[in-house]
TrEMBL record:
Provenance organism: Candidatus Woesebacteria bacterium GW2011_GWB1_38_5b
Compartments where found: Cell membrane
GO BP, sorted A to Z: signal peptide processing
Domain Prepilin peptidase A24 N-terminal: 8-87
GO molecular function term, any single one: aspartic-type endopeptidase activity
Annotated ranges, domain Prepilin type IV endopeptidase peptidase: 108-211
InterPro entries reported for this sequence: Prepilin_IV_endopep_pep (IPR000045), Prepilin_pept_A24_N (IPR010627), Prepilin_peptidase/N-MTase (IPR050882)
Spans through the membrane: 77-96, 103-124, 130-146, 153-170, 182-215, 227-246
Entries under Pfam families matching the protein: A24_N_bact (PF06750), Peptidase_A24 (PF01478)
UniProtKB keywords: Cell membrane, Membrane, Transmembrane, Transmembrane helix
Protein name, per record: Peptidase A24A domain protein
Chief location: membrane
Amino acid sequence: MLVLFLFLIGIFIGSFLNVLIDRLPKDKSILGRSYCDFCKKTLKTKDLIPLLSFILLSGKCRYCHKKLSYQYPTVELLTGLLFVITYQFATLNFQFSIFNYQLIYYLFVVSGLIVLFVADLKYYIIPDKITTVLGILASIFLLFNPELIIPHLVSGSLAFLFFLAVYILTKGRGWGFGDVKFAFVMGLILGPIGVVLALYVAFLTGATVGIILILWRKKGLKSIIPFAPFLAFGTYISLLFSEIIIPHLPFYLW
Ligand SMILES: [Zn+2]
């Protein structure tokens, strides 16, 4: 029952995340009714039920019958699934209860990571508002856990300086300034060990995907591959699984 409840909450939040993904990079207001991307008709409430409306309309706009993007059901489903997975692993690792503030914090972080992932993939933009909100949430969480403030602040600063150095040396070709700012927030959320693991996962998956795309000749060596999706993926893996993964890594020395 609880899992189903979290899944349903997740797909509704996922439908809101779709709004953030498409409006924040264009500096549009996130308030106001949703409309069709093609004919701009305002959608009725019955067209806005997550997943279900997409299935009932067989993926087409009710008015102009143009094909709707698979982004909408994918993000909704992904958010639902990640809410359930996050709850399952968080209760396993940290004995969270459903009303634990730490679980709610984690679900907010997951939501922010999904927006960063898709917005950067689609528009090559990391919305500043999401980075800022995640930074504020992490700061509030640290106020509840004062012993973590110094190590997490230092981790964020070091990650920021590392990303800034590469950004300056590569004249912004390695990654954009949005990634530099997000690196600080990653450190703030994850702390020293967590941020190293997250970056390790991000670079490993980023390099793997990059090589595959080049071999497939989908991308040239000089074309842009957005990096925030890998940072978001690394952050999620580290947030939930660092306590399981770290003891198995070959460089584990502490
Ligand atoms: Zn339409």
